[in-house]
């Protein structure tokens, strides 16, 4: 991605057609978008494949004339997970008259929320923090929020636990991203969810989790709910396995069962943790490529078409980027079908109308994408996956957490 800026579509030019009268006919319109994310630096293990998914799908749109003569020009810039760089990128994109912004981090989305309102531009970040949508008319989450994911994991383990109220620890990223859903899980417990949170751990740079794991065991913790990125989870799983503390079956007495939200899992976790990832429970709204289906086939074919390696092709974060590009493309299609110009206002209007019989099924998710003025999370359903023989396999059917509605 030369210069950390990727032009997905060439600028449309006028085509001189040798017809009667030598008329000059204009090519289709160029719809400009901006994406700022961590291609390098912290969380680039998620941002890099995400960027590739966005880039490749928009290339497909242009290469196959999906929008007729119209094309998409998505400018992609690396912000290294730095809010100040994100803000500069966003301002540069505005000078290019973008009609939609694809953001990334929790911190930058919160920091720019007022700017989005002032500019009247719809935003879809890679952060699923529920607080992104609070008091905002323009921020839309692609899938269920981190809070819904953590609560969903809590509901699952509460139902599957054999006796009494399960004792859990939370292992979260030391940032707004990590802390965000903790309070909502606590609200769900007050509303009746049968869990006992024994400790909340914000992991640091120390990769030796031995003391922490032994402490949790001494407090009777049975389950560890993780909400961070893959690397610290992989380190913890390997340490737990080395100490003989990792459960070999769900809720095994005297051992720790590990569960995690979207950014903790996926094939990269297995690559990092190896055999220690076995029996890890993970929840997301995205499909996985090792389970055959139309969405998996489409994802793998897209990656192959544009020369991506197996790691990127099978990443749930490649699917994540692909999916937001699918949604944006669908919005442009619908705005065009409405007969008016494809503007910021039109994109926002089509987002709010994406519900009921106008729900969108991209194939990369386990449920349909729906939005409205009161629903800013696209895919409400979650799928639980469990690592068996080194691969994530779905467990049960997609579900919608019950307590998320009870704590609003």
Q: Spans of 5+ residues with little confidence (pLDDT < 50)? A: 1-26
Would you identify the CATH architecture of the largest domain?
3-Layer(aba) Sandwich
Which percent range fits the helix content? 25-40%
CATH class of the largest domain: Alpha Beta
SSE order? EEEEHEHEHHEHEHHEHEHEHEHHHHEEEH
Order of strands in the sheet with most strands: 9-8-10-11-12-14-15
Please give a quick description of this structure.
This protein has helices at residues 44-63, 83-95, 106-111, 113-119, 146-160, 176-179, 182-190, 210-218, 230-242, 267-273, 294-305, 310-313, 316-337, 344-352, 403-406; strands at 5-7, 15-16, 24-25, 30-37, 71-78, 100-102, 141-143, 167-172, 196-202, 223-227, 257-260, 281-284, 377-379, 382-388, 391-399. It is α/β, with parallel strands linked by helices.
């Amino acid at each position: 991605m030369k210069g950390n800026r990727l032009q997905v579509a060439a600028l449309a030019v006028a085509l001189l057609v040798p017809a009667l009268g030598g008329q000059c006919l204009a090519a289709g319109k160029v719809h400009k978008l901006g994406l700022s994310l961590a291609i390098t630096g912290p969380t680039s293990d998620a941002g890099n494949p995400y960027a590739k998914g966005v880039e490749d799908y928009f290339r497909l749109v242009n290469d196959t004339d999906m929008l007729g003569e119209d094309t998409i020009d998505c400018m992609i810039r690396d912000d290294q997970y730095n809010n100040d760089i994100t803000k500069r990128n966003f301002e540069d994109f505005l000078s290019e008259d973008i009609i939609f912004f694809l953001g990334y981090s929790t911190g930058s989305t919160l920091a720019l929320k007022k700017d989005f309102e002032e500019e009247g531009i719809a935003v879809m970040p890679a952060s699923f923090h529920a607080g992104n949508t609070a008091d905002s008319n323009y921020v839309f989450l692609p899938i269920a929020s981190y809070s819904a994911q953590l609560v969903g994991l809590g509901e699952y383990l509460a139902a599957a636990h054999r006796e009494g109220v399960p004792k859990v620890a939370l292992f979260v990223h030391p940032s707004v991203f990590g802390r965000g859903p903790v309070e909502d899980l606590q609200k769900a417990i007050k509303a009746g969810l049968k869990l006992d949170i024994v400790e909340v751990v914000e992991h640091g740079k120390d990769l030796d989790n031995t003391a922490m794991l032994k402490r949790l065991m001494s407090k009777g913790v049975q389950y560890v709910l993780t909400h961070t990125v893959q690397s610290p989870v992989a380190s913890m799983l390997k340490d737990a396995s080395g100490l003989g503390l990792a459960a070999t079956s769900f809720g095994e007495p005297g051992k720790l069962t590990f569960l995690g939200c979207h950014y903790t899992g996926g094939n990269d976790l297995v690559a990092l943790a190896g055999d220690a990832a076995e029996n890890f429970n993970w929840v997301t709204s995205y499909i996985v490529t090792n389970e055959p289906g139309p969405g998996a086939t489409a994802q793998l074919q897209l990656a192959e078409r544009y020369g991506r390696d197996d790691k990127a092709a099978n990443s749930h974060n490649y699917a994540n980027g692909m999916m937001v590009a699918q949604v944006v493309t669908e919005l442009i299609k619908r705005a065009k079908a409405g007969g008016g110009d494809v503007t910021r206002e039109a994109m926002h209007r089509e987002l709010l109308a994406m519900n009921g019989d106008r729900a969108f099924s991209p194939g990369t998710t386990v449920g349909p994408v729906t939005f409205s003025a009161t629903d800013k999370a696209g895919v409400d359903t979650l799928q639980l996956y469990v690592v068996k023989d080194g691969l994530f396999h779905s467990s049960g059917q997609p579900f919608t957490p019950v307590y998320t509605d009870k704590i609003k």
